[in-house]
Amino acid sequence: MIRRPETTPPLNVKTFILTCCCTLLALAALVAAPVSARATDDIDTWDGTADTSWYDANPDAETFTLDSAEDLAGLAQLTNQDTPITFTGKTILLAIDVDLSGHGWIAISQNGNNSTTTSFSGTFDGQGHTISNLKNVASAEYRYGLFGTVHEATIKNLNLVNAEVVVTQDSTRLEVGTIVSWSSDSIIENCSASGALTCETDNLIGGLAGQCTGSSQLIGCHSAVDVISTYPEAEIGGHAPTVGGLVGQWENAGNAARIQDCAFSGSMQVTSNQAACGGILGACFDFDGAPGVTINNCLVSTTAITCGEPDNITYIAAVDEDGSVTNCYWPDDERAAVVQLVVDWDQGTASADPNFDQTQCGSAFVGLSADELINRLNAHATANQNGPTWCTGINGHPVLWYQTDQIPADYAAVDAALTTVPSDLSPYTAASAQAVNEAVAAVDRTLTSDRQGEVIAMAQAIENAVAALEKLADCSALNAAIEKAGAIDRTLYTDGSLAALDQALEAARAGSTAGWGASRQSDIDALTAALDEALAALERKPEMPQKPVDENKSTAKDKLPGTGDPALAALVSTTVAGAGTLCLGMRLRKRQ
Q: In sequence order, what DSSP letters do the residues of 249-301 get, joined into one string?
């Protein structure tokens, strides 16, 4: 149990008493943590069977490739047979993402120890692939996790997603982790894990590894596991678990023992009031003069850590006087980040050194900008051929370079493509302008870098659409011809020629408003020519002929004599005389 000392130093110093410390440490020549990393394309779902043909075909090969979930189960079967095949000096490559849902998993080397004859001792390279939905077969006798034990092994480039590890009260094993329960002198590099680990016993419990011993190393690893310990509260001196976000307990660290560039962003719920709870490492003990573990450049971004005794919580770790913590970062100074233990092996107790100053171990990152924190972490990171070890995640917190599902995608190519889009698309055909607008509208800026290919495709789509923009055809001559045709006096021309003009004019107007591109300029020119020809071919109606005027021919008016004309007088006299004669004759006839 961790308790505050009588005098409280600037640091929230704690004291904690570990029960049955000697018994636990005697057993603790066990437990470590390997793997976890990134994922990729095709996923093979396990059918519950095991296939060892990949090994049986050539057992002397130096490298073996697992192409299916059944091949992975075959690896577990080979390491758990009566005479285990431990793959010492061999390399196992995982070539596909694997889904273990629906069937209980038996850990690889579930019953090994710290030897190359009983534990997996080769290299397991996940190649960035994912193993998802691991759920162990319940066992009181055997270890849990993807690997039970590894010794002098390397586990790298693997991502364990949505693991569900449940250890019940009847378990007799000391340690439990999601990727490996016990890591002995092994390297776990560029691995991550998520899911939940629930343990009812007083085990050494770690989000990635239950226990590490000797010169084990965790480099570039991340845990987003929800670690739950339900072991009950007890009196001082009683049994209690040791719980860590990455590693539960480290024992008898070797010269190369280290946790480097690692992060914890999950949660811890610990019931016991005697438990040690650390975000990176629960606790480290060395009882045979070992040099202690080195923790460097690690980050805890979560505050979701609870314990039956809150003073037993450290954001980073509780280490003995031989261990060291440097350049680490934690959320705030509300609780201790690092305590140094003074261990009394005779009494089985460990007390926090009240004079220890945790500022030498790093600092809370509150108040630091994301860029400043990233820069500080990368300044102390191990060399990484893939670029910066630490990157800014989508939530603003630093993440490791291979956590591509948490790193924003790079939109530089999209932004460059957008600069090529004309500000005015009106000079272009409607179809080609619409294609550009659709490509721009399709840009999704929420993608992460594991989907970088999709972002590149967005940029390419914009570039292709811009390249395909088609200028509108030049209709100026056609429009001028249309205007000319509309201005004629139709009363002057024959119906036949007007019909031909109207036909050409209708086609011209349709072409003018069709929005044709430059590729159809010849069609526009043809319509213009046809309209010009129709205009030129207009035929005027014939004019009505007028009767010619004969100047020598007199009219009736011309024949009438004028006043004072002798001829007129004679005419009048003759007319009057005739009229008198007519009247006389009429009278005579009537009287008869």
A: EEEEE-TT-EEES-EE-SEEEE--SS-EEESSEEEEE-SSS----EEES-EE-
